[in-house]
Amino acid sequence: FVSVEMSLLIKNGTIVNDDSMFKSDVLVLDGKIVEISPSIEPLPGLEIVDATDRLVIPGGIDPHTHMQLPFMGEIAKDDFHRGTEAAVAGGTTMIIDFVIPTKGESLLVAYDRWRGWADPKVVCDYGLSMAITSWGPEVAKEMEMVTKADYGINSFKFFLAYAGVFMVRDEEFYQGMIQCAKLRALARVHAENGAVIAERCEHLLSSGITGPEGHTQSRPEELEAEATFRACTMASQANCPLYVVHVMSKGAAAAIAHHRKKGAVVFGEPIAAGLATDGSHYYHEDWLHAARYVMSPPLSRDPTTPNALMKLLAAGELHLTATDNCTFDCHQKSLGKDDFTKIPNGVNGVEDRMSVVWDKGVHAGIIDPMKFVSVTSTMAAKIFNCYPQKGRIAVGSDADIVIWNDKATRVISKDTHHHAIDFNIFEGMQVHGVPETTICRGRVVWANGQLRTVQGAGRFVPLAPDSQIVFSAVDNRGKALEPVKVERAPYEATSALAAPDANANTVVKTPARTAIPPGGISSIQF
C-alpha cells in the first residue's frame, strides 16, 4: 500500500547535496526517496512539484532549540507547535531540542516531560539532547540509560554559566565528559565563566547600570573565549569529543581552532543571530529594543564578527549552524526593566536561519550551495548520527526536502513570521534565498506562502551514540594519551639519605628545575 499523502514527484530541479549538484527528478513514496533520475514518469494521481530553475536541497536541521523552555521564571513563547511551524516555514524539517532537568531532578523524569510536551505538537521531526545540571553517581547511571534505544539520546550539554541554576563546576564537567566518552556520547558545552559573570553583575548593578547594556558588560566576550579554551582543554584530558554551542566571538572560534590543530575533536556552532547581528543593539537608546537582543553569550561587540564567523564556516574552522531559538515576547523581556539580570535570555531564529545563512554566505560569495547544505543540514545529521536518513537527497533517505529559490528575496518581519512573539531580531532585513516548498517525510507542509501542517504529525527521531564523524579517531587518540609509567630499581631511602663522607670530595646536586624562558611563561608555545 502506498500512501498518496506522503508521495510525490519533484520534476526538473537541481539537486544539491553537501558534495554534489546535478539536475534530476526525485520520486517520493511513503515518505521515502525511492528514485532519483533525470526523467521520471509520474504515477497516476501522484502530486507533482515543479522545481524548474529551483534547487532541491535536504531539509534544514537546527541542532539547537529551546521550545517552551521554563527559564528565568517565564516559559519560552514558541512551544513545540508554533516553533516547528516557524521551522518548516523557513525550510527546516528537523530540530534537536534540549531536555533540561532542574538541579537534582532525575534525567528520566525530565525526559518524559519533554516528550509529553513535544510528541502531540510537533509538525516536523525532532530529536533531543540532554542537559546535565547536577552531578553524582545516579546522574552517571541515568546518562547510560538514556543513551539506549528506548530513549534515543546521544549528546549531553553542560553549562559553564547560569550559576546556581544550570551551571556545573569544572570537576563535574570533567567527570561528565569522562562518562560521555565511555558511552560514546557527544559532550556539548555552553562556554562562559559563570562565577566571574555573577561577580560582574553585582558590580554593575551596584554602579547603577541596570539596563540591557549591563548584560553585555557583565559577560564580555573574553570570558567566552576563556571558557571555550578551558572546556576544550578539559575535553582533551578526558579524551572526549566536544561540541561548543553558540560560538559568538572570534576569540571562542580561535580557541576551537587552536585545539583542533593539536588533534582534538571539537565542533563549533555559530547561530543565525551571531551571523547577522552584533552587540551594538545593547546600547540602543530604546530600552525595549536593546532588551530584545539579550541572550547568552551576548552578541559580539565587534561589528566585523558576523562576517568573520561566516568565513570560518567556509574554511571549516566552524562546522554547522543553529539558532538557540528561545523566544520571549516584549512583556516578558520588560520584566527586567529595573535589573538587566532579570531580562529573560533568548532570541528567535528557527524560521530565518536558512535564509540568513544563504544571504550572508552564498549570496555574499563566501560559501557555495554545497557548503550551505553542509552547514545547515548534512553536518548536523552526521554529528548526531542520523545520516543519511536525514541531511541528504538520496534513495532510501527520508523525504525531508526543500524547494529553494536562490533568486528570490524576502524581507523579515514580525508581521509575517510564524513565531509566537511580537518582534523579530532580524526586523527589516532583506535576505536572498527563499524556501518555496517544504516537504516533511513526503508531506508538503509549506507552499505558496501558506502552512499545510498537521499538529503532532512529526516524529521523534532516536539518536544513537557512537557517531563515526565524532568518535572514529578517539580510540587511537586514547592510546596516545595513556599514562606513562617509569620502571625503576627499588628505592633505598636509608642509603640515599646517608651523610656524605666528610673526607670525600663529593658534590650533591639537587634536581634541575624547568627553566622559565626569558620572555616569561606567556612566551611558552603550547
Compact overview of the structure:
Its cofactor is Zn(2+). The protein is α/β, with parallel strands linked by helices and 526 residues long.
Structural features, described:
Helices cover 31% and strands 20% of the residues. It has a domain at 59-394 and 408-429: Metal-dependent hydrolases (TIM Barrel, Alpha-Beta Barrel). It is globular and about 95 Å long. It starts with 7 loop residues before the first strand and ends in a 29-residue tail after the last helix. The protein has 526 residues and is α/β, with parallel strands linked by helices. Its EC number is 3.5.2.2. Its cofactor is Zn(2+).
What labels would you give this structure?
TIM Barrel; metal-binding; 18 strands; 526 residues; alpha/beta; seven-stranded parallel sheet
- The CATH class assignment of the domain at 59-394 and 408-429 is Alpha Beta
The third-level CATH topology of the domain at 59-394 and 408-429 is TIM Barrel
Structural class determined from secondary elements: alpha/beta
The largest sheet is: 9 strands, mixed
Mean pLDDT: 94
Would you identify the CATH architecture of the domain at 59-394 and 408-429?
Answer: Alpha-Beta Barrel
- Helical run tally: 17
Estimate the global geometry from the Cα principal axes. Answer: globular
Poorly predicted residue ranges: 506-526
Distance between the termini: 62 Å
Strand content: 15-25%
Which percent range fits the helix content? 25-40%
Rg over CA atoms, rounded to whole Å, is 26 Å
